[in-house]
Amino acid sequence: MVFLSGKYRNKQFPKGSRMERDWDFWTRYRKPNTNEAVDEYFNISEKYNIDMSQMCIKFCEIQDFMSSVIIGATTMEQLKTNIESVKVNLDKEIINEINEIQKKYPNPCP
Questions:
Q1: Which of 26, 55, 86, 108 could make a disulfide contact with 50, Cβ separation 3.0–4.6 Å?
Q2: Is the pLDDT of residue 1 over 50?
Q3: pLDDT tens digits, one per residue of 20-62
Q4: What pTM value is reported for the model?
């Protein structure tokens, strides 16, 4: 979920970030439709005033086929944000909007 933090939107690679530091390692996130899918997820998070990372973690967590969600934080701030996803509630409308994006871009980062 490297890209689902939102910090790489608009081709931004913050200093010291994983993408800036290890560019050659993260090639799967430089595929067609990756940025488009991330932008649409970001728009949902903005629309409902939910942190994008938390929204994505919660969406994974509530899937019937998912037994656990592994979070990867580089900083303590990211870890705290990710942990706070336990407080997020995604209603059916938000889930439906996320699912529509997944239909449009089924696997943008294979």
A1: 55
A2: no
A3: 666 565 665 666 788 888 889 999 999 999 999 999 999 999 9
A4: 0.76
Estimate to the nearest angstrom the gap between the alpha carbon of 107 and the chain centroid. Answer: 13
* Two tokens, residue 58: 């919660």
Mean pLDDT confidence for 84-92: 96
Domain segments of the chain as ranges: 2-104
What is the spatial distance between Cα 2 and Cα 5, in angstroms, rounded to a whole number? 6
Pair 52, 5: CB distance under 8 Å: yes
State the DSSP string of 25-70: GGGGGSSTTHHHHHHHHHHHHHHTT--HHHHHHHHHHT-TT-S---
